[in-house]
Design a protein that fits this description.
The protein has 298 residues and is α/β, with parallel strands linked by helices. The protein contains 9 helices and 13 strands.
Amino acid sequence: MPPFSLFNNLKRDQILDLIAECSNILQAQPIVIKTLKPPIKIFGNLHGDYIDLMRFFDIWGQPNDNGDISGYDYLFLGNYVDKGAQSLEVICLLMALKLKYPKQVFLLRGNHEDRNVNKYLGFGQECTRRLGEDINDPNSVFQRMNDMFEQLPLAAIINDKAANNKVFCVHAGVGQTVQKIEDIEKIQRPLKLTLGQINNETQIAAMELLWSDPAINDEIIGFSSNIVRDPLKQNNMTLFGADVVEKFLKVNQLSILIRANQICPDGIDRFASGQCITITSCTNYCGTHQNDACFLVV
């Protein structure tokens, strides 16, 4: 694995080659990955925190030929870029792992894998500063990377046949438009989203998967507006109740929902009597939250 220090020699042409090869693999894989089986490691938000990712790999095993890739698959739930200082290291490493182990390393899309978001929240500035590029150039690393992000799958199902369990994994959650797994499978890629211009069923479904959050406690049922993320109610961002989780799992014959999208003080949080688990895999988010980080093993 790369050392804890920065990649000081990331070359623009090499990154573009990584993007092209990774895009080819992603296009050939479905929007809902159903081939996963235990044991598997699941990671939440990374947000450009390359050092924390290296800590995880150094202490608990790493996905390479000298590590535990022969025993574990790896699933990452999105939000690879923005906020942290090393988005390029994080996403380039994950792309390289995806290329080397295309059937064992899986990357889902998060809400920051969107050019309309990451242009302003860190990744765009990092590409400008470190690569010296015009991020508005369609051939820039920034634009080509976001083209690749539009090919990322939106969900995964881990099938534990021995325990008769199926685990649903997604970046954010579910909503009123997404009732069944088949609803997700109907979404076509490349998937482009423009905040403030979400006006058809496909875009609404994608927003639910990428932006929704659990209600503040298990007592709240149904759906409500997510005014923290969408104060003007323009983008179909919702909060879902414990009853919504229970119904979605029952309808789709699933056992549990694992998600990211939020920062948890202890690195992990439980909702809907433990049927919905949120994880985050970067510590001290934005240098202000003093939160712990975790990954899950199924």
